[in-house]
Amino acid sequence: MKEELIHALKNRGCIKFGDFILSSGKRSNYYIDIKRAITDPRILKTIAKMISNYIDEELKNKNLKIGGIELGSVPIATAVSLETEKELIIIRKKSKDYGTKSKIEGDLKEGDMVILVEDVTTTGGNVIKAVEEIRSMGGVVDRVFVVVDRGEGAKDNLEKIGVKLIPLITVDELM
Known about the structure:
Layout: H1 2-11, E1 15-21, E2 27-32, H2 34-38, H3 41-54, H4 57-60, E3 64-69, H5 74-84, E4 87-91, E5 104-105, E6 113-121, H6 125-136, E7 143-149, H7 154-159, E8 164-170, H8 171-174
Parallel strand pairs: 3-4, 3-6, 6-7, 7-8
Antiparallel strand pairs: 1-2, 4-5
């Protein structure tokens, strides 16, 4: 499936070259545009199946939730939720200023295990904030699945907070 995903990302034009500023604030001469991929149902289905295959039966039998960070990883988390038949939670980057003002949408209870998914990681800053938010609400996060890891510190930064980063593919494999 990995080779299928790499091929699909390349064919969909998800790798762009130029001068880009990433969400981490870093400059890069390439950009991984996963949103081009996650709007294609076939690619999204492949991603969901790959992540689902990583989740073992013991974990599937627990009170497991699938978490996605707005905006990019929500379609991925939704697809994984459908594939695993586990509930979805959505983590906002900032609280909404109306209604419940919650940063987490969905039913997260104390002790719930959360598998967090992300589209692309560089330093892992957004993922770390999401992990901290989930943990502040009593959720347990010990692994994050990412479609593409750029290999620029996310793995080490997440390990520092006790979270394992599991990339479906690395940027080296993609390039």
